[in-house]
From TrEMBL:
Name of protein: Cobalamin import system permease protein BtuC
Biological role: Required for corrinoid utilization. Probably part of the ABC transporter complex BtuCDF involved in cobalamin (vitamin B12) import. Probably involved in the translocation of the substrate across the membrane.
Membrane topology field: Multi-pass membrane protein
Record's keyword terms, sorted: Cell membrane, Membrane, Transmembrane, Transmembrane helix, Transport
Source organism phylogeny: Archaea, Methanobacteriati, Methanobacteriota, Stenosarchaea group, Halobacteria
Family: Belongs to the binding-protein-dependent transport system permease family. FecCD subfamily.
Superkingdom in the source lineage: Archaea
Coiled coil: none
Residue intervals passing through the bilayer: 97-118, 130-148, 155-172, 184-203, 224-246, 271-298, 310-327, 339-358
GO cellular component: plasma membrane
Localization: Cell membrane
Keyword Transmembrane helix: yes
Record-linked NCBIfam families: PRK09535.1
A Pfam family this chain is assigned to: FecCD
Organism: Natrialba asiatica (strain ATCC 700177 / DSM 12278 / JCM 9576 / FERM P-10747 / NBRC 102637 / 172P1)
């Protein structure tokens, strides 16, 4: 029997874990900073607008220049922290940690929905070509700007991801119905085509090859607060709405015919779940590149711990995914040479998934 208090307690515990992991991550690096100082520097970074305008700033939005007012901000806290430590925490480490948590939150939530939607433990956010579409858009923007829909790599990746998702859905839909098997096959075919396209662009990318390859491996280096502002609202709103459809996702596990008899508008629910999962995945991949195994392994772990009910599985998987990506990105950046975080998630995720297979923990849903 489902108890809302169980969801609240698990979510609260995982939120505390995320805060602890984030503080630990911010303390590590070439310059070691103790966690107490990190916490004070993070609180010092909190600022609120005073309502006083200091002029306007020209901001590019979808290729157009828009003037927006520049507000004066004042800090909420004023702890005594060394200027160097405050600068490192506020402008270098916190944005990267916040983006890692946001992307992990999005990918794990989308993976949970995809596994329930397809009733397949091997499903992940890239199964309908979202990651391949994002990669195609990003590589085009990096190596061939004239081919990209926007000059921004983020926007090109986002548009490529969503365009691919809806293309796959359109191909698989016939007569108002979208069979799951057809959707899966269409996704595989589109991924293969985009893989060939990406390979062609990489071969002819010239001096931009390394930048494109690093992006495709998944990375969180040189993160700024603007990256976080791009992805965080999409992640929070998307997962919130997905949570409202957790009951319908539970019913879909019984099969589409049974779900229809139980009062679920199957096609409408499928479209909404796919659209929201694609949007939050696209936002995460657009700013961080292709990061694998977060949406595959984390939902499995949480399903073994909390059970298959998506009313608790979805929020706990999202929060666990945030902690997982913050931890793996910490490993990626504190070694002798920084490596793309996608390599670390694969090193961690693949052996663990094989362990689950050997233990026969990976079964159809």
């Amino acid at each position: 029997m489902y108890r809302p208090s169980r969801t609240v307690s698990w979510s609260a515990g995982l939120t505390v874990l995320l805060v602890v992991v984030a503080l630990g991550s911010a303390a590590l690096g070439p310059v070691r900073i103790d966690p107490v100082t990190v916490a004070m520097a993070a609180l010092n970074a909190i600022a609120v607008p005073t309502g006083v305008s200091t002029g306007t700033t020209i901001v590019p939005v979808l290729g157009f220049s828009t003037a927006v007012p520049t507000l004066e901000f004042t800090g909420v806290f004023d702890f005594e922290v060394a200027g160097t430590h405050q600068l490192i925490v506020e402008t270098i480490r916190l944005p990267r940690i916040a983006l890692a948590a946001t992307v992990g939150f999005s990918l794990a939530a989308a993976g949970t929905v995809m596994q329930g939607f397809f009733r397949n433990p091997l499903a992940d956010p890239s199964i309908i070509g979202v990651s391949s579409g994002a990669a195609a858009g990003a590589v085009a923007a990096i190596a061939f700007p004239v081919l990209a829909p926007f000059s921004s790599v983020h926007l090109s990746a986002f548009v490529g991801a969503l365009g691919t998702a809806f293309l796959v859905y359109g191909i698989a839909t016939e007569g108002g119905r979208t069979p799951v098997a057809t959707l899966l096959l269409a996704g595989v075919a589109i991924q293969a085509f985009l893989g060939a396209l990406i390979s062609y662009m990489l071969v002819h990318s010239g001096d931009d090859l390394r930048r494109a390859v690093v992006w495709m491996m998944g990375h969180l280096s040189n993160t700024t607060w603007s990256d976080v502002r791009f992805a965080l609202p999409v992640a929070l709103l998307g997962v919130f709405v997905l949570g409202a459809y957790a009951r319908e996702l539970n019913v879909l596990l019984l099969g589409e015919e049974d779900a229809h008899h139980l009062g679920v508008d199957v096609e409408r629910t499928k479209l909404l779940l796919l659209a929201l999962s694609s949007i939050i995945t696209a936002a995460g991949v657009a700013v961080a590149g292709v990061i694998g195994f977060v949406g595959l392994v984390v939902p499995h772990i949480m399903r073994l711990i909390v059970g298959p009910d998506h009313r608790i599985l979805l929020p706990t998987s999202a929060l666990a995914g945030a902690s997982f990506l913050v931890a793996t990105d910490t490993v990626a950046r504190i070694g002798p040479a920084e490596v793309p975080v996608g390599i670390v998630t694969a090193f961690v995720g693949a052996p663990f998934f094989l362990f689950l297979l050997v233990r026969r923990e990976v079964n159809s849903l």
